[in-house]
Amino acid sequence: MEDNLTILALESSCDDTAAAVVRQAKGGPAQILSSVVFDQTKLHATFGGVVPEIAARAHAEKLDVCAKEALIKANVSLFDLDAVAVTAGPGLIGGVLSGVMCARGIAAGADLPLIGVNHLAGHALTPRLTNNVRYPYLMLLVSGGHCQFLIAHSSSDFTRLGGTIDDAPGEAFDKTARLLGLTQPGGPAVQQEAQAGDPTRFAFPRPMLNKPGCDMSFSGLKTALRRARDEIIAQKSGLTRQDRADLCASFQAAVTDVLSEKCRRAIEIYMTEAPSEPLIAVAGGVAANTSIRAGLERTAHENNCAFLAPPLSLCTDNAAMIAYCALEQYRNGDRGKGELVARPRWPLDRHSPAMLGSGRKGAKA
Ligand code: KG4
Ligand code: ZN
User: Fold this and answer.
1) What domain range includes position 56?
2) When you count CB atoms within 10 A of the terminal residue's CB, does the N or C end of the chain come out lower?
3) Band of the pLDDT at 358, cuts 50, 70, 90?
4) Are residues 167 and 66 both part of a single domain?
């Protein structure tokens, strides 16, 4: 391993344009020298979801600005870098292509290796970036676009234990907020309302809890919520503040119960590998939810597993996780010699079947 490895990474697979510089001294912890994120939320706000063409164009406009800012903030020049890394998938293909083309230009101009990184691997390795946790550990990715339990064995070896077969939980929170006239993104708004609500008033379904394994489903929940909302409106010609709070609290309780129970099952499978330091970590915007987080933490501790939630800025999309993943790949011999292909789908676990369909934020991985 080189004394010092310094990598510039770009991320543009969804609606955040990001660049970061991460350095790791020999034997030391990784250090984030800079992490820049341009959020596109406003550009897509009126469309109710990410518009791929708008996203790709905005990425193309912002990527070089972002990269320059990351280098300046890190106080490094292109000559200080050992490699350039880029998210090569999975994600919205126009955005991924914008990132790959920009990174290819930087790498060619500076005569540096170009390392392609799987976006989900970036999320999955975040606990090593922040806390240097040991393999194998269990990971729950839970956001507006992803929901899956993974065992991480190395930067290129993951076992997918299960995931959503339809909506990601963040999507379900966002749709719930829309149904109740709350602001977007829906997760924080629903959580806020739920604080004053009764989580037992509506007996929403806990989908797929009666099925073995770690797969989940969240799309039926919003249908149940819509039905409950419409019934109240039909009876009282409107929703009171309390009705809305109770709907939010009951919805949040259902999601928490499903994720906690599936987490218990994922830990059971993970423990059969006899990990030396059992740990489950979460990543993704939904991990910010205090009820879900408390449910997962409780489940982890009841099952003799440590629980780790990295800082939210590193749980949501960012390029520091891509740079860190590339660092591990580089150390394992990846010098970007293979062909770098932008991929809309790129399952982390090559042995488990790919999920079908598309989410609000692109193809499911
Ligand atoms: O990871 P993220 O920033 O972006 C991607 O999906 O890639 O996650 C955003 C999602 C949104 O759907 C948002 O509503 C949800 O995370 N979210 C939350 C909370 N904060 C953000 N969901 C539930 N409770 C929250 N406190
Ligand atoms: Zn992501």
Assistant:
1) 4-130+317-363
2) N
3) low
4) no
